[in-house]
Amino acid sequence: MRRLRLTALVAGALALAAAAALAAETHTITDATGRQIEVPNDPRRVFAAGPPAATLLYTLKPDAMVGWPRAPGAEDLPFLRPETRDLPALGRLTGKGDTVNLEVLLSARPDLIVDYGTVTATYRDLARRVQAQTGTPYALIDGSLPTIPATLRRLGDLLAEPERGGTLAAYAEATFAEIDAILAAVPEDRRPSVYLARGPEGIETAARGSINAEIIDRVGGRNVVGAGPDGLLTVSPEQVQAWAPEVIVTIDADFAAHVSAMPEWQGVPAVRDGQVYLAPSAPFGFIDSPPSVNRLIGLKWLAEKLYPEEARIDIEAEVTRFYTLFYGVTPDRAALDGLLGTAGHPGE
Amino acid sequence: MLALGLAGALATGAMLGPYPLSPVDVADTLIGHPPDPQAAIVLWNIRLPRVVAAALIGAALAAAGAAYQTVFRNPLVAPDILGVSQGAGFGAVLGILLGLPVLAIQLMGFAFGIGTIALVMAIALALRGMGQVLVVVLCGMAVAALAGAGISLVKLMADPDDQLPAITFWLMGSLAGIKQADVAAALPAIVAGLLPLIALRWRIGLLALGDDEARTLGVEAGRLRLLVILSATLVTAAAVSVAGVIGWVGLMVPHMARLITGPRFDRLLPVALAMGAALMVLVDAAARCIAQQEVPLGILTAVLGGPVFLWLLARGGRTWAE
């Protein structure tokens, strides 16, 4: 019995070694920070450093995922490929609020670490340090919205999934072109002022140009919050009254449900006119959370809300198409209703 | 003069804010003739609740601090010395982590604040140390450290994009989200806590002489101290649960008041109440006017209050130890 187990162990080790040898063929690439890194030709086990990278990896090569930064919530599970639902939550490795233990990271035996987001000196250093400590190549990819098509192609190549990368990139390019066509038909003065409400009180928001509100800028919404030094900020309801936004986009279901009855929001044009929209959030948010490729469908959704006449978008068909293509899951009628049904005005 | 200063601060608070309202507009709205319906909404639903809440909370924290400094006979004591702020903070950030509605977050803050002090008392009693100030304070510090560890743990577990900014902002204190309903909810607890302090201000003052002296004057020190602790806990927990953790006021305002009145508690208390209220109203007005972003009160009280306090100290006048 013991011998049998030993044999199995040896066979397993051999199989692993063979797989490792296959993956061990490497080539050198230059990442977004200009670092030269040696990466495997066909990465089989990839660790995503944070939620944006995990979303990107999920859409390109789900079977290479070794875990999630955070366990997906119960409401997200129906929209995720079954084989990824039970992956362990390993934590994140993105500068602020690291939660992954490097030993846990190593025991997941990744052959590549990918981070996707803002490229700063902090992240460059982090990448260099983690790579030195773990001996695992660590690639940083620029996470801004306009570069999504290029990113999908590059990462597709990096993950040895060039066709998939090309398909998704083509969708992203078509989406941007579609938005540009809509914007060409909407003169500047008909683009509404928009306030992004976060948190149950709705007084957390994001400034113009920040990664959290980037897609509002992209669809031509005039973010009432001027460009600020940092992304997220808290404001007073009185400030919102002074801004008088025509449309409110929120990612908080609690706020969306109660805003029409909250005394301090009375008379805000968006609340008065029923122009408060709750962005769907499963499995990934439409606005940010995380700021990744999930925002492509958010662009269409928001364009449809802001310009219902010019943007002739069948949002249910679009969501079905996007979820099938990017997430590998086709939502059925009930799932679509659950996802978009709350997207109307509260109290409608 | 004190009342005049407080009235001036309240009026200033009502005039200032990011929504453009002239003093005439504000006055018209207050007497029931708003220039437009929106002015009434802004003033009655948003700005005045904030001003009232700021006054209440400032007064409450200053009174609690003054009472604590007297009964513990220690000028470095703040109303959260026994851990009520940390406990309430732990309850509230736990509520944020669990994604609870705002009211439930406030209730959790209040309940955990009271619960923390109950725990401190229970431990102190078990150690037969209720009579000894040092034992009570040490128990408080131990429990506060535990709650602080809980807060750190919650921060670690929170979603760094979504919940963590909210938690951090809440822990620095703010009245940005205050509503009429919040004021109504906090008012009974604050009044219930302040009334005993005001009614018993003579006796509380005697505790500053020491337990033995107080006893010869007919004051049961242990029971009175317990009452002060309960009252101060009530008002502090109520303040923290609606406004977050606002440092500095409970510690410094009593000293500023003392520079005017001297150490006698019965004279100190009314001045501390008025000064705390006025100061908090002005600081909160600054918090909503300085930038488009709300500036956390904890930062402002430290930045504005510290230099003012040092200036008062340098000017001399009567001191604590008189």
TrEMBL record, chain A:
The reply to whether Signal figures as a keyword in the UniProt entry is: yes
List, alphabetically, the Gene3D superfamilies matched: 1.20.58.2180, Nitrogenase molybdenum iron protein domain (3.40.50.1980)
Q: Fe/B12 periplasmic-binding domain spans which residues?
A: 45-310
**What Pfam families does the record point to?**
Peripla_BP_2
Under the heading InterPro entries, the entry gives: ABC_Transporter_SBP, ABC_transptr_periplasmic_BD
Which controlled-vocabulary keywords does the entry list? Signal
Signal peptide residues on this chain, from the entry's feature table? 1-23
Q: A GO biological process this protein is involved in?
A: cellular response to iron ion
The protein depicted here goes by the name: Iron complex transport system substrate-binding protein
Q: Which organism is it from?
A: Rhodovulum kholense
Automatic annotation (TrEMBL), chain B:
* Membrane-crossing segments per the record: 51-69, 81-101, 107-127, 134-157, 185-204, 224-253, 265-283, 295-314
The protein's topology relative to the membrane is: Multi-pass membrane protein
Keywords, comma-separated and alphabetical: Cell membrane, Membrane, Transmembrane, Transmembrane helix, Transport
Q: Which Gene3D superfamilies match?
A: ABC transporter involved in vitamin B12 uptake, BtuC (1.10.3470.10)
Q: Which cellular component, as a GO term, is one annotated location? A: plasma membrane
**InterPro entries for this protein:** ABC_BtuC-like, ABC_transptr_permease_BtuC
Enumerate the Pfam families for this protein.
Answer: FecCD
Share an example GO biological-process annotation for this protein.
Answer: siderophore-iron import into cell
Q: Name one GO molecular function term.
A: transmembrane transporter activity
Going by the entry's taxonomy, the superkingdom of the source organism is recorded as: Bacteria
Chief place of localization: membrane
Record's subcellular location: Cell membrane
> What family classification does the UniProt entry report for this protein?
Belongs to the binding-protein-dependent transport system permease family. FecCD subfamily.
Recorded protein name is Iron complex transport system permease protein
Q: Native species of this protein?
A: Rhodovulum kholense
Taxonomic lineage of the native organism: Bacteria, Pseudomonadati, Pseudomonadota, Alphaproteobacteria, Rhodobacterales
